[in-house]
Amino acid sequence: MTRVLLLGGTTEASLLAQALAQAGIDAVFSYAGRTGAPVAQPLPTRIGGFGGAAGMAQALREGGFSHLVDATHPFAARISANAAEACAATGVALIALQRPAWAAQQGDRWTRVADTTAAVAALPDAPARVFLATGKQGLLPFAAKPQHHYLLRLVDPPEAPLPLPQTSVVIARGPFDAEGDRALMDAHRVTHVVAKNAGGLGAEAKLIAARALGLPVILIDRPALPPRREVASVAEVMDWLAHAGTERGV
Questions:
Q1: Is 187 exposed, middle or buried (0-12, 13-18, 19+ CB in 10 A)?
Q2: Are 180 and 202 in contact (CB under 8 A)?
Q3: Which CATH class is domain 3-100+224-244?
Q4: Bridge partners (DSSP) listed for residue 194
Q5: 109-220 has which CATH code?
Q6: How does pLDDT run across 42-83, given as a tens digit for each residue?
Q7: In what order do the strands lie in the sheet with 67-70?
Q8: What are the distances in angstroms from CA 241 to CA 2, 89, 97, 153, 158?
């Protein structure tokens, strides 16, 4: 009997939740709980962490899950590592639904960096106006360069003072379009963009806008993740569940 734990928080996870519900597959949608008003899902939903790999393994056993789909953000390295460890420990079948990474196109002015620390170092020393499109979790390292004005786009209003002395905050939920992002960058006189290589169409708008404006982009590479089966579409996950999801722990 198939029972799926879907680790979500991405557009792809929401699309998969719709497909699972329409197919009548027994599934639970899990949110990490980092946004105040997560998108409603057509599946039973749990919100919050598991308590590491051991806690996730316990949840898999107690919930009677046979399959786990990791459709978290490509930079959610810790929960992805915990999922791989928990599935290996319990024999639950694992697959990851991961959007392809972005690739540079003609006209892009990208500087590829390994992590947030390298992104901070790649910013100029002279004051700049930076569209810091990395989410609220990784702001503190940029306090090392307080001379810049940072434009932040967040899903929820900040609950505590921001660690950056010069900021403009826009509250919005994607997906976004290139025309709107170009207007946003123009309005805030952005000179540099910092982003994570998350992939996906909804988040690509800022890169398209930066290309059109000729702006330099500092792009943070994805973190290393444990070996696992990965697919790029909802259809591939559904096919795996129907025909090839019996290989436990793969």
A1: exposed
A2: no
A3: alpha beta
A4: 132, 218
A5: 3.40.50.720
A6: 999 999 999 999 999 999 999 999 999 999 999 999 999 999
A7: 45-47, 26-31, 3-7, 67-70, 93-97, 230-231
A8: 8, 20, 12, 36, 39
